[in-house]
Design goal:
single chain; five-stranded parallel sheet
Amino acid sequence: MLARLLSFTLYGIDARPVEVEVDISPGALPKTILVGLAEAAVRESTHRIERAIVNSGYVRCIDRIVINLSPADLPKEAASLDLPIALGILAASGQLDQEQLSQYAAVGELALDGSLRPARGTLSMAMEARNHQQRGLLVPAENVREASVVEGVDIIPIQSLTEAVGFLNGQLPIEPAPFRWEEAVEEYGRYQIDYADVKGQEFAKRALTVAAAGSHHLLMIGPPGSGKTLLASRIPTILPSLSQDESLETTRVHSATGLLSNGESLILKRPFREPHHTVSEAGLVGGGSVPKPGEISLAHNGVLFLDELPEFNKRTLEVLRQPLESQNVTITRAIGSTTFPADFMLIAAMNPSPSGYGPDGGHRVNAQAMERYLSKISGPLLDRIDIHIEVPAVPFRELADKQEGTNSAQMKEQVLQAREIQERRFASAPNRINGRMTTRQIREHCKLTPDAELFLKAAMEELGLSARAHDRILRVCRTIADLEASELITEIHLSEAVNYRSLDRKYWS
């Protein structure tokens, strides 16, 4: 007897449909054959599935079982195929009514007692089930909040193989899981940190406001203990809240890598990723025999913070250059290629020298050691970072000051006003923020006053800036002008933007 049902496997962050076919026929000896380019985790599942079936109270087949996972040329590596294979065996052996199998897809890993364990990537799988006109998707109960975000498909929470069989046989009614956006935002969308916690550093807060308003990349240089990490970690609190589409995009990446917290249905706060400086190239941009997303994709729609920037492997840093321009990364392997999203704000922090201090503070600095330290960061990478600022040590009088500084709410209000202007400006364009403007958009929207044009010419000649740096200065100018609600870019706006580009000439001249 032959049974068929639909399931899914992950390839990158995308769910690919897998048709599970199970054929049971008489044989001299009981034997289970699994075909269809199954990886080790799937091949080993036959023993687990057999015991789960028996321990759930069903009859073990003593005939020849052939399990085919189609398409045959697609690698299948997830244990989430356990449940559909078990259901196929029960249907082919006459222990499960096949009528509902064409309407419901299934995913989930089985334990030996027949209970279900959570699977990775159920959000992408639910979206693919909807695309294949499935009435519903059976998922482990722990994944139900994540999968229920998808509209147009019933998400059925299942705790065991017995429950799945009872539901498909019509003996156990299970209501589809609902999803309420407002409740999820209230539970998971609040921040516990604030820029009010940071004493002093008002100049740095201003630069961070500009960076957040236009999604510009930023580099902070300063001695240890000056607050660089505190400043960086609070950037998500001043960025606009995630829209539903952005939340779905971000959640797909985190779901595919198994990073969603228990019970968390959606990523509702801007991601903040802080990889250690020992991270590999594959860990940063993604990779593996079956490509998986790296840190830059986990930071999609959020912030990638690289602390102690010169301590990163230079070759590892260089792989960031292309994603910073294209906002995505394509990983190619012999079995195919996949593209991961990588639209993030890069925030980097570093000390001015290996000792942690620069010559300005009266400290003795070995010039050669400082030069070797700074040379780990290439000019092309620096050119792609829009804003460079110094973060000096905070004097005692500011630390002891009882008056609260600028807080996140005040900074976010400015950011949102500037973003609204950009939304109107780029209403018909795919790029909706100043930091992603194309060359044509720069020419169209960055109108300088005559005095500002002369100032920019003088700054370009004096600082020896590249054409890329010229465009990035204009992008930052546009954001500064938007913060002032000014249509024209004046010399004052340009002066602030050029000031944000002077440090690379001070330290790397």
